Amino acid sequence: MKKILTIILYCICAITLQAQSQQDLQKGYEKFGRLLYYINSHYVDTAQIHKLVEKAVVNTLRNLDPHSVYLNADDVKAANEPLEGNFEGIGVEFNILLDTLTVVTPIAGGPSEMVGIKAGDRIVAVDGKNIAGIGLRNNDVFKLLRGPKGTIVDMEIMRKGVEELLQFRVIRDKIPIFSLDAFYEVEPGLIYLRLSRFSMTTIQEIKEALAKFKKKPAKMILDLRDNAGGVLQASIDLANQFFDKGCLLVYNEGVHWPKTMEISTDEGFFKEGELVVLVDEGSASASEIVAGAIQDWDRGILVGRRTFGKGLVQQLLPLTDGSQIRLTVARYHTPTGRAIQRPYDAGHIEKYYDDLYKRYSNGEIYSKDSIHFPDSLKYYTLKDKRLVYGGGGIMPDVFMPLDTTYYSVYYSRLVRMGLLYQFVLRYMDENRAALQAKYQKFANFDRKYEVDEALFEELLNYAESHKLPRNNDDITISAPQIKLVLKAYIARALWGMSAYFETVNKHDREFQKAVELLRAPKRN
Questions:
Q1: Using CB atoms within 10 A of its CB, is residue 218 exposed (0-12), middle (13-18) or buried (19+)?
Q2: 223 φ, ψ (degrees, to nearest 5)
Q3: Which residues of the chain have pLDDT under 70?
Q4: Can you name the residues that pair with 234 across neighbouring β-strands?
Q5: Which residues of 463-480 are buried (b: 16+ CB within 10 A; e: fewer)?
Q6: I want to staple 335 with a disulfide (CB 3.0 to 4.6 A). Which of 126, 183, 296, 512 is the partner?
Q7: Is 473 among the catalytic positions?
Q8: What pLDDT does residue 15 have?
């Protein structure tokens, strides 16, 4: 009887709250409509009602969460291009945050990534023209930054923690749309697979790459570092490939969104092999769905640093004039129940995006001991009952601090000014045929080619002639890294992106840790 009364009271409360919500909604309609009527009928000047409404929509969404946004009719068309087709430009995913063009992520393999533009950078001037605080819209950004391959755009960028504006020169190029950046065999039976994003072609790309192997690989390194997400269904489809039938992969729910669960099917192409997943602070959204499922089921080992923490579900909802809102309707949870989304204060978007910089300032990027999780956020994995934590983002099983041993101001400017990349373009124009004749296969190039002192000196002279003075102390610190990246760029120009990553991975600490773990005796 008591249980029945409880259920009745719950239903009464729910009906009362729903009725109150409908009353508030009706009052809101009437109040805003009356406001627009007064402005249109009595305001001292002619008011542009459509602009006022757009601003009201933008500000309303801004006070909800960091990922609910407004898209005008032109924005709607352009928003799908990075996932559906290719275009020519500088290669960044962006947001207009507090009237400032903010880089969400540079597109892997694109020209902005090549010169060192980073997530969170604020682009304040393009070709000498200020673009901050002028009411910039998405369509304006496309006009400024897109353009024919080979044309140049100069930008001034404000970066958190750097006092002066940073100068970048980017050569526009065709922006890659494929999600599989690199795929190669590290050693017999061990493959490396790097995804830059999740697109509608992701699974097909991976299957085509795997089909090139006569024998099914026994081990895999899945690199999701700096993968900011994309098509969420693609991440669910990928996670599905690692599990037997019947495993919960992810679920989402919201106040007006019923709990929806994604369960693995029986189609997985890598259900039994050993697996290591590389993640970092740039791994977000769809990447975190895959990483969370793998960790929660003890399916593989996560290596790297805590992921971004973007776990909100957006739904595109049409408005009356062809525009849309991308409204957050639910939250994603890993199989153990952990919310992927990190905390945020409604209306404080700037503070939300500054969280990544706090990870640098508080030492989290460099030391695991700087990370503190409250006991209230304890969870246990589903198979081995290992302790994991919620609170936003996915903390890897094996923490790897950011490698700064090669960093110097000179190296940063060399990359940021586009000089290293530009030098390789010029070098390849003059030497491509000779290199192709001498190194017909990448394996031969990888084993024998070294950046000699003559070529290194030529690069330094080139940089000096382009207004980057030498700094011998910095050059000594960064010389091995500069030579490594120089070789990797040359490899990429000859054999594609996989050759680039195969070159740099030999000196990548996180990659080497993954190989070490997979070479170790298999755990029972």
A1: middle
A2: -100, 110
A3: 1-21, 76-86, 104-105, 108, 176, 347, 523-524
A4: none
A5: beeeebeeeeebbebbbe
A6: 296
A7: no
A8: 52
- Counting Cβ atoms within 10 Å, is residue 91 exposed (0-12), middle (13-18) or buried (19+)? buried
Residues 6 or more apart whose CB falls under 8 angstroms from that of 357 comprise 120, 160, 161
Strands 301-304 and 166-171: unpaired
CA distance to 22, 234, 389, per residue, from 208 (Å): 52, 15, 36
User: For residue 209, which of 514, 512, 417, 498 has the smallest C-alpha distance?
Assistant: 498
Which is the catalytic residue, given 65, 112, 179, 310?
310
Its pTM stands at 0.78
Length of the chain: 524
The reply to whether 310 belongs to the active site is yes
Closest CA to 140 of 174, 107, 99: 99
Of 223, 280, 296, 508, which one is the catalytic site residue? 296
Catalytic residue, chosen from 68, 283, 285, 478, is 285
Question: Token pair of 97, please?
Answer: 């945050």
Tokens linked to 89: 């430009």
Q: Is 149 a catalytic residue?
A: no
CA distances from 381 to 298, 347, 378, 395 (A): 7, 34, 10, 13
- Tell me the C-alpha to C-alpha distance, in Å, between residue 297 and each of 68, 253, 294, 337, 398: 31, 21, 6, 12, 16
**At 101, which amino acid appears?**
L
Q: So what's the pLDDT on residue 518?
A: 97
The DSSP line for 399-416 is E-----TT--HHHHHHHH
Q: For residue range 131-143, what is the model confidence (pLDDT) as tens digits?
A: 998 888 887 888 8
Domains of the chain, with CATH numbers? 31-62 (no CATH), 86-174 (2.30.42.10), 180-314+329-343+363-399 (3.90.226.10), 409-510 (no CATH)
Looking at residue 57, its pLDDT comes to: 85
For residues 422-453, one letter each, b for 16 or more C-beta atoms within 10 angstroms of the residue's C-beta and e for the rest, the string is bbbeebbeeeeeebeeebeebeebbeebebee
